[in-house]
Amino acid sequence: MTVRRATGADVPVLAALRRAWTEEDHGAAPADPGFEDAFAEWFAAEEHQRAFWLAFDGDTAVGSMNVLEFTRMPRPGQPPGRWGYIANVYIAPQHRNGGIGSRMLAAALAHADERGYVRVVLAPTERSVPFYARQGFGVADSLLLRLPG
Ligand SMILES: CC(C)(COP(=O)(O)OP(=O)(O)OC[C@H]1O[C@@H](n2cnc3c(N)ncnc32)[C@H](O)[C@@H]1OP(=O)(O)O)[C@@H](O)C(=O)NCCC(=O)NCCS
């Protein structure tokens, strides 16, 4: 198993994983032949502010995630502050519970530390809470959430 940063050259692989995740959650989705182009456009628009990772079993990509970087409003006399939002964390079902997701998350958190993030935020599913808790995430008491009425 290996984990590495993903680049624009990996867009087809990232899109294939996203399609697989959609099919896992929603059953065989409509073919949506425009999806891969839409994904490539989204990646091109986002890559200046997101870091992407891929996890591999041999040569086969089995998971991915990304971190969206927010840059805080500058303050005079202070270095720029940043924080991160972890998104789209996915390991293919047959490769789960073997530690690869944890390795990928650790790589993203090392990146967060290198970039000096003042916080890392995410919205977990209930089942994944222990996965994140093992790497230091706790319940937020300093954020508010508004959902559309
Ligand atoms: C969450 C996920 C990335 C973890 O990857 P992984 O390689 O299985 O992770 P690890 O082997 O390092 O850790 C296993 C932990 O993952 C979590 N997990 C296992 N199966 C899961 C599932 N189907 N969905 C969500 N989390 C799961 C559990 O916390 C588990 O630990 P526990 O059994 O002690 O509670 C992976 O399960 C997954 O892709 N799930 C579906 C998509 C998802 O829920 N993404 C996260 C949304 S916030």
From TrEMBL:
GO MF term set: acyltransferase activity, transferring groups other than amino-acyl groups
Keywords assigned by UniProt, alphabetized: Acyltransferase, Transferase
Keyword Transferase attached: yes
Domain N-acetyltransferase residue range list: 1-149
Membrane-crossing residue ranges in chain numbering: none
Pfam families the record matches: Acetyltransf_1
Record's keyword annotation contains Acyltransferase: yes
Protein name per its UniProtKB record: N-acetyltransferase domain-containing protein
Organism this protein belongs to: Actinokineospora bangkokensis
Taxonomic placement: Bacteria, Bacillati, Actinomycetota, Actinomycetes, Pseudonocardiales
